[in-house]
Design a protein that fits this description.
This protein is of the alpha/beta class. Helix content is 37%, strand content 21%. The protein is globular.
Length: 185
C-alpha cells in the first residue's frame, strides 16, 4: 500500500489535494482513501491530510501510517520535527521552500540523511493561479518524483476533476502542475 501524509496549514488546499490525488488514482482502478485531521478548524492552523492507495481494498481506516511520501506544503512546517514522525529510511519528502536543498538541510537538521526534494510551490501557485494555494503544484511534483501515474494521464484526469471551476482557474492550475513537474529538484 502506498501511503502519503500531507503537512500544511488550513486553507492551503491539502485536503483538496489529497482528495484530488485519490480521485485520479481511483480512476485507474486503484482502491483509495483520502482524509484529514484538523486541530483548531480555522485558516492557518497546522493540519495533516492522508492518502492511502492500493491494488486491493483498504480495510485500515486509521490515520496511523508509515508514509512512503511526506508532502510539506507550508514552508514553516518543515522546521517542526513532527514531519519525520513514523517515517522510514525510504520515506521521500517533498518540501515547498524558496531555499535550495542544501540550505534547507542545513537548517532543518531532522531531514538530514532523508530523501528530500524541494519545490517553491507557493511561488508557482502565486504566479500561475494568482493565489498562494500550493496543493496542485505539489501534486505535479509528487507525480514526477513518485512516477505513480504517467504525467499525461494525470493531466487528463486532473483537468476533468477541475472542470467545475472557471476556465481561468483550470488553466492556472494546469500551468502550476506542469511547472512544478519540471522544477522539482
Amino acid at each position: 500500500m502506498l501511503q502519503i501524509r500531507w503537512h500544511s496549514r488550513a486553507g492551503q488546499g491539502a485536503v483538496t489535494g489529497a482528495k484530488a490525488l485519490a480521485d485520479v488514482m481511483a480512476r485507474t482502478g486503484k482502491y483509495v482513501q483520502a482524509y484529514s485531521v484538523y486541530g483548531a478548524e480555522k485558516r492557518g492552523a497546522p493540519m495533516t491530510a492522508y492518502d492511502k492507495i492500493d491494488d486491493k481494498p483498504i480495510l485500515d481506516h486509521s490515520k496511523w501510517m508509515r508514509p512512503d511520501y511526506v508532502l510539506v506544503i507550508d514552508p514553516s512546517l518543515v522546521f517542526q520535527e513532527e514531519i519525520v514522525n513514523n517515517t522510514t529510511d525510504d520515506t521521500v519528502f517533498i518540501v515547498t521552500t524558496h531555499m535550495d536543498k542544501e540550505d534547507l538541510l542545513n537548517v532543518a537538521k531532522h531531514l538530514q540523511g532523508k530523501k528530500v526534494y524541494v519545490i517553491d510551490a507557493i511561488k508557482i501557485s502565486q504566479e500561475e493561479i494568482g493565489r498562494a494555494i500550493p496543493n496542485t503544484p505539489m501534486l505535479g511534483a509528487f507525480v514526477k518524483i513518485s512516477g505513480i501515474i504517467p504525467f499525461e494521464d494525470f493531466l487528463v484526469s486532473i483537468k476533468d476533476i477541475l472542470s467545475k471551476f472557471p476556465q481561468k482557474i483550470i488553466d492556472g492550475n494546469l500551468r502550476a502542475i506542469k511547472r512544478a513537474y519540471e522544477e522539482v529538484k
